[in-house]
């Protein structure tokens, strides 16, 4: 259960991150230059796909009845975390999910 | 009034939000704490240990005790130890007003446990403001309606809904407060709309009784019996003494059908019309299954009724109750609700603070009455936001500091809670604004950070079990957050040039 839960959390944050970076003002905030239109489209598409993946993972954790409820909660909290981190530590806001992957991996291997 | 929709909604959002904001903050904060009401109960009853006994064993001890002490009670109620509530509790007579005793689940002997208001106090305050039931419920309902109005009007006036979805610009004074208010409101919008709407629904039959009046002549009990209650009509024949059937097989049968059990109610134990009701732990499904139990014959062990199948209309209602009560989904879901609830409270707080920040520069040009009113708003902000936090953590401190043998101990804890809150109101009125914030938030931070120490000195067994440890860790984390906010308040305040100020004031959104 924890594996699916952590997975859903990481995917939710990543989706919010992708959608956020697809907006010009926030891409500039992190990387200092404007994104190309193609990159913006790719980021937004990735964002929506990760969103759906996050919903699927949430349903693995809780079932399809409770899953959407938990998914909305995870989305909201991820979005808020992102909005809070961006002005203070933009690079950390982008890269911390990578550090989250080993934690997820550990949960997966321990099969909790 | 030749106003645009945005202008009138902005007026509604501002003044409706201000008038009800203090009440709503209190409701949301205590509601968030109520998510962990049983865990807080457990922390406030340090005499109870976490043990693991089987339900059958616990019931055996409970029945033996009840047989010894209350053989001729009209009903026995047994609350079984569960993951959230490790206590074994028996009640003779009516469940709410009978004689309650805690038992040690291992030995079956009675435990002396301190009388406490518990985390249940936060739950009761959340829906009734600790007032008599009906007036309190009506006021909370009014506040919930005001919350819906504030949410919808807020959405209407927020022009840059998607453009500023992730926007937060700190260290810019009023702009930052508006950003924080917008971000926490928009990103948690599903939660806000859901929790407010479902909250209103719970007492819908009180607020809108027309259906109940016309179909059931206002008799709620009749409605409940027809749709939810599982009990058959009572025996009319005279009853005689009869031995109670073995409970262990009935427990197994109920568990197989309904999942973990929270309790057993035995009506008329030892008589021929005895009934045994098995109550399940809430949370197997989203729908709130309170009262949806299995009833067995007390002498033969035959299944009489339940668990009831719900009609679609009742199921829809129960799902919406369940979404608000947050008993489903295990601890991960419970934590999500808790954090979202705290952030909602923060959202309301940022709105209240934003109101005063916006108007601070205009003080000198206001009439003396206007200045007094703004002063009142400022001090109410401190008293409600910081003061309530002090009162809540203070309740936990009172639980350990008040003598255990004090009569009506629970009542004294509640009085202490309100006394602390009242003191914070006075303090907020008398002290200058910034000092009031710093001092009250510092007190809250100290009380939170000191909780583990209090636990050690008052109890001798700090973090005696995992549940209490989790609670103390959470409280310390909240204390660190409060300490950080005090540190922020000691930083030099943001100064603006006059031109920037006028530009900021021109922006509603």
Q: Can you give a write-up of this model?
A:
- The complex is a heterodimer of chains A (112) and B (509).
- Chain A has 112 residues and is an all-alpha fold.
- Chain A has one domain (2-110).
- Chain A is 90% helix and 0% strand.
- Chain A contains four helices and no strands.
- Chain A has helices at 2-21, 24-31, 37-88, 90-110.
- In chain A, α1 runs antiparallel to α4 (90-110) and α3 (37-88) crosses α4.
- The radius of gyration of chain A is 14 Å and the shape is globular.
- The relative contact order of chain A is 0.20.
- The model of chain A has no long low-confidence stretch (mean pLDDT 94).
- Chain B is of the alpha+beta class and 509 residues long.
- Chain B has a domain at 5-43 and 121-202 and 325-506.
- Chain B is built from 19 helices and eight strands.
- Chain B has an eight-stranded antiparallel β-sheet, covered by helices on one side.
- In chain B, a hairpin with a 5-residue loop joins β7 and β8 (303-305).
- In chain B, α1 packs across α13 (330-360), α1 (5-34) runs parallel beside α14 (368-401) and α15 packs antiparallel against α16 (433-449).
- Chain B is globular and about 85 Å long.
- The two termini of chain B are 22 Å apart.
- The interface between A and B is medium-sized, with 28 and 27 residues.
Helix content of chain A: over 70%
Helical segment tally of chain B?
Answer: 19
**Helix and strand succession of chain B?**
HHHEEEEHHHHHHHHEEEEHHHHHHHH
Q: Count the beta strands of chain A.
A: 0
Structural class of chain A: mainly alpha
Rg over C-alpha atoms of chain B, rounded to the nearest angstrom: 26 Å
Strands of chain B, count: 8
* Cα gyration radius of chain A (Å): 14 Å
Q: The biggest beta sheet of chain B, please?
A: 8 strands, antiparallel
What percent of the residues of chain B sit in helical stretches (DSSP H or I)?
55-70%
- Alpha carbon gap, first and last residue of chain A: 6 Å
């Amino acid at each position: 259960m924890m594996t699916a839960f952590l997975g859903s959390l990481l995917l939710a944050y990543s989706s919010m991150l992708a959608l956020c970076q697809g907006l010009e003002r926030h891409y500039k905030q992190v990387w200092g230059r404007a994104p190309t239109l193609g990159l913006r489209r790719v980021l937004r598409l990735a964002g929506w796909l990760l969103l759906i993946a996050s919903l699927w993972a949430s349903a693995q954790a809780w079932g399809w009845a409770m899953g959407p409820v938990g998914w909305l909660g995870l989305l909201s909290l991820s979005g808020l975390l992102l909005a809070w981190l961006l002005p203070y530590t933009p690079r950390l806001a982008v890269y911390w999910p990578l550090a989250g992957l080993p934690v997820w991996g550990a949960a997966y291997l321990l099969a909790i | 009034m030749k106003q645009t929709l945005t202008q009138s909604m902005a007026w509604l959002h501002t003044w409706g939000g201000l008038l009800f904001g203090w009440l709503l903050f209190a409701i949301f904060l205590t509601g968030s704490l109520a998510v962990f009401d049983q865990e807080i109960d457990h922390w406030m009853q340090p005499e109870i240990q976490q043990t693991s006994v089987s339900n059958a064993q616990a019931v055996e001890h409970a029945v033996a005790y009840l047989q010894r002490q209350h053989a001729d009670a009209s009903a026995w109620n047994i609350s079984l130890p569960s993951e959230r509530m490790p206590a074994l509790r028996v009640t003779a007579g009516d469940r709410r007003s009978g004689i309650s005793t805690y038992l040690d689940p291992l030995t079956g002997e009675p435990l002396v446990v301190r009388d406490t208001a518990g985390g249940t106090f936060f739950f009761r305050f959340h829906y009734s403001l600790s007032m008599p039931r009906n007036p309190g419920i009506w006021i909370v309902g009014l506040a919930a309606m005001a919350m819906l109005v504030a949410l919808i009007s807020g959405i209407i006036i927020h022009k840059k809904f998607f453009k500023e979805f992730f926007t937060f610009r700190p260290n810019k004074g009023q702009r930052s407060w508006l950003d924080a208010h917008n971000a926490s409101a928009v990103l948690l919008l599903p939660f806000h709309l859901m929790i407010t709407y479902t909250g209103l629904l719970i007492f819908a039959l009180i607020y809108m009784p027309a259906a109940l009046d016309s179909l059931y002549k206002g008799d709620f009990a009749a409605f409940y019996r027809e749709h939810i209650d599982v009990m058959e009509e009572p025996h009319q024949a005279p009853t005689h003494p009869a031995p109670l059937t073995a409970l262990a097989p009935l427990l197994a049968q109920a568990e197989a059908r309904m999942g973990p059990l929270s309790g057993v109610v035995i009506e008329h134990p030892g008589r021929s019309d005895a009934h045994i009701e098995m109550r399940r732990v809430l949370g197997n499904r989203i729908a709130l299954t309170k009262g949806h139990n299995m009833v067995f014959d007390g002498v033969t062990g035959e299944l009489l009724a339940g668990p009831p199948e719900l009609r679609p209309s009742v199921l829809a209602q129960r799902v919406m109750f369940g979404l608000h009560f947050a008993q489903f989904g295990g601890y991960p879901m419970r934590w999500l609700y808790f954090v979202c609830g705290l952030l909602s409270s923060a959202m309301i707080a940022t709105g209240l603070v934003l109101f005063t920040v916006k108007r601070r520069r205009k003080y000198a040009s206001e009439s003396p009455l206007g200045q007094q009113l703004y002063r009142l708003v400022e001090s109410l902000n401190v008293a409600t936001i910081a003061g309530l936090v002090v009162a809540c953590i203070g309740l936990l401190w009172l639980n350990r500091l008040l003598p255990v043998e004090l009569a009506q101990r629970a009542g004294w804890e509640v009085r202490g809670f309100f006394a602390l809150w009242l003191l914070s109101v006075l303090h907020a009125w008398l002290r200058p604004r910034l000092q009031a914030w710093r001092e009250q938030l510092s007190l809250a931070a100290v009380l939170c950070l000191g909780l583990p120490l209090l636990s050690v000195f008052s109890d001798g067994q700090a973090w005696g079990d995992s549940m209490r440890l989790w609670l103390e860790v959470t409280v310390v984390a909240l204390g660190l957050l409060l300490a950080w906010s005090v540190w922020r308040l000691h930083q030099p305040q943001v100064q603006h040039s006059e031109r920037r100020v006028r530009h900021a004031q021109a922006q509603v959104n």
